[in-house]
Amino acid sequence: MLNKNQVHGAVKDLEGKVQEAAGKIVGNKEQQAKGLQKQAIGKAEKSVGNAKEMVQDAVDTAKSAAHRS
Predict the structure, then answer these.
(1) Does pTM surpass 0.85?
(2) Which CA distances in Å does 29 have to 14, 20, 42, 69?
């Protein structure tokens, strides 16, 4: 299941790709740079979400193991 960080990160990454492409089309290097920055922020937020999910999976596994013993 996706968490909010993963979703927000993916959306921000996509927004950045669109902004970068638009900047390339019109020849605006500032917009390209802002798009790249948004992509980096989005990827970082998605990574945070992935880490949170991994931790939650580990906690759930530990709880399951504790209940079985």
Answers:
(1) no
(2) 18, 9, 20, 60
